[in-house]
Design a protein that fits this description.
By secondary structure, this protein is α+β, with helices and mostly antiparallel strands. It contains 13 helices and 26 strands. The strands form seven sheets. Strands 14, 15, 18, 22, 25 and 26 form a six-stranded antiparallel β-sheet that branches. It has a five-stranded parallel β-sheet with strand order 3-2-1-6-7, sandwiched between helices. The mean pLDDT is 95. Bound molecules: adenosine monophosphate and glycine.
Length: 472
Amino acid sequence: MSGAKVLVIDAGGRGNAVAHAYARSPLVEKVYVAPGNAGSSIMDKCHLATHDQTPLKSIPELLSFAESQGIDLTFVGPEGYLSDGIVDCFIEEGQTIIGPSREAAILEGSKCYTKDLLKGLGVPVPPCSNFSQAGEAREYARQYCAEHPEKGLVVKADGLAAGKGSVVCSSLEESLSTIDRIMEAPKIFGGAGDRIEIEERLEGRELMFFCLSDGRAVLPLESALDYKQAFSQDEEVAIRLFNKLSKNPNLDNNPNTGGMGGFSPHPWLDQELTEKIMKRIAEPTVRGFCEKTGREYRGIIYFGLMIDQNRDPFVLEINVRLGDPEAEVILPRLETDMYELSLALSEGRLKGFELQWSDDCCLGVCAVSGRAIKPLSSGGGERPGYPGDHYTNMPISGLEKVDPDVLVYHNGTAWGTDAKGKSRLFTTGGRVLTLVGRGPTLAKAREKAYDNIKRIRFNGMRYRRDIGLGYT
Ligand code: AMP
Ligand code: GLY
């Protein structure tokens, strides 16, 4: 009997890691990835899904591919497709697909909706309020800071902004200018900033908590510690230069990114904290969403949490998918068959399902397109780099020097031809590659990742040097 065919929809490193997890299943014969990238087809059993040699992008193209190729199961990575209703379209045509429906994707698509829902359910969140008028938001920020001079605020665009829509502010002035930059023309996050959420800046430790839900049962996955800020604390000069080149008046703001690296397992997540998060947050959210809307939440649900000094968790955000780069450090540790697990989720059989994880640690470091200068004669100039404006199409070298036991997941790469007509790998995005070291201890995993990332080069390449530092 031939094995199953899986379609993974994702263009980044998370998609490489998900495809890799399915490919490890003896039940799976082929994994297609769309739109994918140059890393999607280098793993055993994995292929780029194309039509006439062009990557597939739109929902109708993807559906038609799934139907014509006899795909048994589709997994959706990014929030954009989920918010656009890809799951509803596939299910209508009788396809098996993992991910929440369009209605359920609102938990990520609108921070204002979600915080209101959670407050109504009694799920712990920081003190917060929503605004659709910049004047009212400014007034609220002024009053809040006057009443709580020791506290800071976080200003968040309501809609999807590629993980960059939350700005952690350290002064009232910074909060006010952030409100303006999000809500007033030219609106740095476009329509995602028509409404904003302002919340109190909490102190504590961050934890990314992932669960699976089949609509009724909620099953915790392993978690990861993610590094959201573009720079480490000691890179003041780089931070100021980044903001200067990005024309951000808040020169000392360390900007948020989609993630610069991370590691799993999370150092503080023990059984007691897991149970607290499940009882106070994950289960009430999934149950409450169903009670309020009449819709079941099926798929992955990801809680961005702050754990305070009493080890109490607060929800900073919900995402309706796996994180990137969290997937790259969590999934290699999954020993349960990913295909069987996905079938259990889609058939409502998660209750009582036991997951097996490796005791190994995985640590991932993202190589990103940093500040770079190109001659003005070639239309260039200086660009601040990810998460701001950055160059792409830079040739990448050194991958052949990476140790075979290091996982190389591609975030933004494509094959192309250089000036000498040689086929080469080129950068296509802000995040380019995630190198994942694995080992029996975090120290060993860290050493592996950093030892190998040094062997890779591209113009403007940058990475944080402190992933896992202080935890080994
Ligand atoms: P979000 O997009 O809401 O997950 O926020 C992105 C990042 O901003 C989080 O991972 C935190 O590092 C930070 N952040 C968001 N909300 C808060 C908050 N209320 N207090 C402190 N840090 C926050
Ligand atoms: N790494 C954070 C995210 O995927 O949203």
